[in-house]
Amino acid sequence: MYRKILITTDGSAVSQHTACAGVKFAQQMGAEVLALFVAPEYQYPVYVEIIPPSYPSEEEYVAQMRRLGEEYMGKIMRSAENSGLKHACTTAFSDTAALKIVDVAEQEGCDLIFMGSHGRSGWGQLLLGSVTNKVLSHTTKPVLVHRLINEPAAA
Questions:
Q1: How many CA atoms lie within 13 A of 32 on its CB side?
Q2: Domain for residue 152, yes or no?
Q3: What beta strand segments (E) does the chain contain?
Q4: Has residue 153 been placed in a domain?
């Protein structure tokens, strides 16, 4: 049914838990896994005429975010490899994570986007805004939302 599944992560305990569930689902489907970490765009210091020496350069920031993304996606890659699934990972940069997730799914030919939800409702959901809700409203692809009722323990 699904041949290529995009699994997103932000490195949180919730997204790591979701990613493990995503790999298990991909294994059941016999699908390829594409892991994605969306890092914020580099921000230049505002209202500063001279960039402080301790402020990272754009190249340093990009390299650091790529390392962080590889760390976050490492568990997904190991799990997919142990499950015998074809797998890849990518770090993308955008200040609108939801739109980047939709773009990557489209560009990479993914059949399904697998992502998590914190299970918040009412004011918590309204005030926080949800990347998952934004993805749902901007894509025509199927999205499987793995909802967690309780926060998993940090690993």
A1: 12
A2: no
A3: 4-9, 32-39, 87-93, 112-117, 143-147
A4: no
| CATH number, position 14 | 3.40.50.620
Higher pLDDT, 147 or 5: 5
Instruction: Report pTM.
Output: 0.86
Domain that holds residue 17: 4-147
Strands (E), 53-154: 87-93, 112-117, 143-147
**Matching residue, tokens 């970490």:** 37
- For the chain, what is the domain count? 1
pLDDT tops 70 at residue 122? no
Q: In which residue are the tokens 């500063």 written?
A: 48
pLDDT tier, 149 (very low <50, low <70, confident <90, very high otherwise):
low
Q: What angle do CA 35, 40, 41 make, to 5 degrees?
A: 120
With 0-12 / 13-18 / 19 or more C-beta atoms within 10 angstroms meaning exposed / middle / buried, residue 123 is exposed
Instruction: Identify whether 53 is part of a domain.
Output: yes
Q: What is the mean pLDDT of residues 48-66?
A: 85
C-alpha dihedral, 89 to 113 to 103 to 149, nearest 10° = -100
Cα within 13 Å of Cα(96), Cβ side: 9
